[in-house]
Structures are given as C-alpha cells and as structure tokens.
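(Fold this chain)
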Amino acid sequence: MGVKVESERLRELIDPNTEAEQLGTGFTFTEGPIWNPQGQYLLFSDMPGDTRRRWDEQGGVREVAKPSNKGNGMTLDADGRLVVCEHATSSVVRMDPDGTGAGREVLASHYQDKELNAPNDVMIHSSGAIYFSDPTYGRMPVFGVEREQELDFQGVYRIPPGGGEVQLLGDDFLQPNGLCFSPDESLLYVNDTDRAHIRVFDHASDGSLSNGRVFAEGIGTGDMATGLVDGMKCDERGNVWVTGPGGVWVFSPDGEHLGVVEFPENTGNLHWGGPDWNWLFVPASTSLYRVKTKVGGRREPFMSN
C-alpha cells in the first residue's frame, strides 16, 4: 500500500512513496484517535470492543478503560481534558486526560428533553465551544446499544463556551459523521456517510451556519464493505483529509481530489500527532496505523499546550 496520486499538489503534502506502519492489531473496530502532547501518547477507541486504548512509542498498545460506554470520537479541550462521544449513553462527556474515566462529567445528553441519538465525532472551537455530530450508529447492534430513537432527525450540534443548552446547527443530514473547521474557523465541513459526500458551511463566530453547499461528492457509495466517508480532519493549509474507499482521501481547499493515502483495511478516522505533529494516526478496522506527512493538522486549541 502506498499513495495514489491524482494531482501533483498531493506531493507537497506527503511523499508518494510513503507506506503506512502498523502500530497494533487484533482489535474489533478502531476509531476516535487523539494525541496528547503533554504525555506524548495516542488514545483511540474500539467501539464494539467497548474499550479505550493508548499507544506510545515506548510501551506500544495497552488498555486504559474497559468498559468505555462504547466511546467513539475524542478530542482534548484547551485545558487538556478529554472529551468523548459515548454511544452507549448517547452523551458527550469530559474526563481526565488519561482516558481511564476518572473525573467524568456529562456535557450533553439531550436536545429539547429528548435523548440524543448517539454522538459520534467531536471537535472544539478556539472559543471553547464544542461541536459534535449525532447519527444513529450508536443505536445499532455491534457499534452501540440497540434501542429506539427518540429524535426524528440526525443533527449537528454546538455546546456553548462554558456549557449550557445544546444548540442545533443543522438537521437535514442522513447520517452526519466527521466534521472539521478550516484553519481560520470560517468554514465548517460536515460529511454525510449515507450520501457519500462532504458539505461545507460558512461559520460565524456565534456558531451559526449559512450558505451550505456540497464540497466533494462521490466518495464511494456508502457501502461499509468498501469503505465509508467517516472521520475527517483539516490540515494546517486548509486541505481536507477524510476516510473513504481504499484509505484516506485528500481534497484541496477548492475541492479538487488530490489523491488517496492507501491502507490495507477500511479506515475509520484520523488525527495528527507526534513530537512535530507530522505523524498521521489512522485507526483502520482491526488495526492502528501511522504515516508521516509533510503537513500537520489544523492547530486546535489543545495543540498549543
């Protein structure tokens, strides 16, 4: 496996001869990677395995929480605390950075007195506001706890800085999944797994969205067997990296498909880390991989710590 180049612009972001390195395997379905810069370690989720794991260069992979409430997407706030989307509890929670579950507090679990579907992926704005997607995967067998849906839509939400009532930003998705900001936070990207496309919105400082349009489409067919539009991140230059058939697809800020970073298993999510922020960590089905890039991720609040 290597890099499939569709545009010469991709060579500025990654060496085409680079190959993915497997860091661990034998898992059920990996997701939600997040790099802790203080401890120099990666946390990642295994939803069906109901387990949260850690990887570091010295000790390799080990469990840090089992059960984990079938946790999925994760990030860190500006204070270094871990924020997790939990499928089993339909909640967004915050806890101590090590991921063991200590200090756990619920940040969001309901919208207008109805239980959220199953928060899936999460990110934090420079203001401290928390954004998350809420598809129904966590109410399905294997990936969550099978139960009836209380809401009649799948949305994208915002928790205001400092907490408070959950704000609905959009509800016209089939299965909203990965989401990310542009480097200056003026754009919010949201992908829709069932539609196999990415939409982009103009994003105001108060969190409101406008001018929604399709940014990229035809990223597979929405068939899980061949790879899904799922996890997504923006790099520091504004390029969008998203999982899809064959690996991680890369799009320029103007929507040009630059190529695919290939992996031997279906990919679920991605996040940059490492001492120089140039290792791209990619959970892919039963394994965890990393690949070196020439670019780092959009600088999120916790990355400056």
About this structure: The chain has a mean pLDDT of 96.
